[in-house]
Write a structure and sequence with these properties.
The chain is α/β, with parallel strands linked by helices. Helix content is 35%, strand content 22%. The protein has helices at 20-32, 37-46, 52-55, 68-71, 73-89, 107-115, 120-125, 135-145, 234-250, 296-305, 316-322, 325-333, 338-352; strands at 35-36, 96-101, 126-131, 152-155, 166-171, 180-185, 188-196, 203-207, 229-232, 252-261, 271-274, 277-279, 289-291, 294-295, 309-315, 361-367. The strands form 3 sheets. Strands 2, 3, 4, 5, 10, 14, 15 and 16 form an 8-stranded mixed beta sheet that branches. β6 and β7 (188-196) form a beta hairpin. α9 (234-250) crosses α10. Residues 2-14 have low confidence and may be disordered.
């Protein structure tokens, strides 16, 4: 979800309209007790029948949020050229897995492949793998991408993708992976869970009855004040470890772009979006996109621990400018009407300006350790 696309005013809690998923969660909590926020996010987004990505028209102007590739074709075109450069830095292998994690409607991959036509050998080498669990989104990806004999495969799990030299793109993927939250209480940390209101007819935040386990990656209690919230994601860390091990074993690079922070800070970043506005995260699960900010420093540490090299993070705006955003805007605008040129400039502004998506979104590159510094990340 693009934070730039959501209204800062949440309004109040909307009139209750209980979903089938909410009913099941309430019954489960009545029987077994509160659940973790991570379990809630996993169900709210990925439940096979009632999860958001399996039941909602999420992306685009008519959906709930808009991503950078949907805003401007320049975003995907610059990444496509970046991937060609990365492939050449790998020695231009004749067999390559081009992997996108969470490819949405396939717009980013379509723009990547169009830009990559500058090197036809790249397209010949690439086996395209799309990690996608939503049948609805797979159908859209198939309509958009299956042409010209492209070798496109879909995977339910990252481990389903065969080992080979790889280039991986993940745009607004890590923010959708489940997080856990912990609250600083008088005597240390306790996990923030999801239970029920006193009337037991709605979901509500609560605290675990026992202190957090001592082996969890929590900051010292003395570094926080009572009521502070700390977040971390087992799922994000495990995914980064899997990516890093693949790259160090088979060669390649991963480009990760998402909204988040550099360094483990305190604060509650759990949020939901519906119809391009903020939405209460526990309201009508399955009908809103639920996400949290990405801790890029944590991702970098995991990558390094697993033998990979890390470049960045840098802001999305800086990254796109270094890749030639201004020149591409000029080239696309040439010969266009004033209205068409204004649309091109407006899209570029939205994806790169600090006041829009350019500052809160970050880019990080994880590489096999033998590769040179990637384009856009050198000073």
């Amino acid at each position: 979800m693009s934070a730039e696309e959501a209204s800062p005013k949440e309004g109040g809690k909307p009139a209750a309209q209980q979903t089938a998923l909410e009913e099941r969660l309430i019954e489960m909590i009545k029987l077994n007790g509160p659940i973790s926020i991570a379990d809630y996010i996993a169900d709210a987004l990925g439940h096979p029948h009632d999860g958001y990505y399996n039941s909602a028209n999420a992306i685009g102007a008519d959906g709930d949020f808009t991503t950078a590739p949907e805003i401007s074709q320049i975003f995907g075109e610059l990444i496509g050229l970046w991937l060609v450069d990365a492939w050449q830095a790998m020695g231009a292998p004749q067999e390559l897995n081009l992997i996108e994690l969470g490819p949405g409607r396939g717009v980013l991959m379509a723009d990547i492949l169009r830009a990559a036509q500058v090197r036809p050998e790249f397209a010949k080498a690439a086996d395209i793998w799309l990690l996608e669990t939503s049948g609805r989104l797979r159908h859209e990806q198939q309509k958009r991408l299956r042409q010209d004999g492209r070798r496109i495969h879909w995977a339910d799990k990252f481990s389903d993708i065969p080992a080979a030299p790889a280039l991986i793109v993940a745009n607004e993927f890590f923010d959708c992976l489940p997080i856990r939250q912990f609250v600083r209480v008088k005597n240390g940390w306790r996990e923030r869970l999801i239970g029920l209101t006193p009337s037991e007819d709605a979901l509500a935040f609560t605290l675990a009855a026992t202190p957090a386990a001592p082996d969890l990656p929590l900051p010292p209690a003395n570094d926080a004040q009572e009521g502070d919230i700390f977040e971390f994601s087992d799922a994000q860390r495990e995914f980064m470890a899997d990516i890093s091990r693949m790259l160090t074993t088979t060669d390649g690079r991963a480009l990760i772009i998402d909204y988040g922070h550099i360094g483990a800070g305190l604060g509650d970043t759990l949020q939901a979006v519906r119809r391009h506005a903020f939405w209460p995260p526990l309201s009508e699960p399955g009908r809103a996109d639920v996400t949290a900010h990405v801790d890029f420093a944590a991702l970098a540490r995991i990558a390094i621990e697993n033998g990979a090299a890390v470049h960045g993070p840098i802001t999305q705006g800086v990254f796109l400018e270094r890749l030639g955003l201004a020149a591409r805007v000029h080239a696309l605008s040439s010969g266009k009407t004033a209205e068409e040129a204004a649309t091109i400039h407006s899209g570029a502004h939205r994806i790169a300006a600090p006041s829009q998506m350019g500052e809160i979104f970050k880019a990080i590159c994880v590489s096999a350790p033998n590769l040179p510094c990637p384009d856009g990340f050198d000073l």
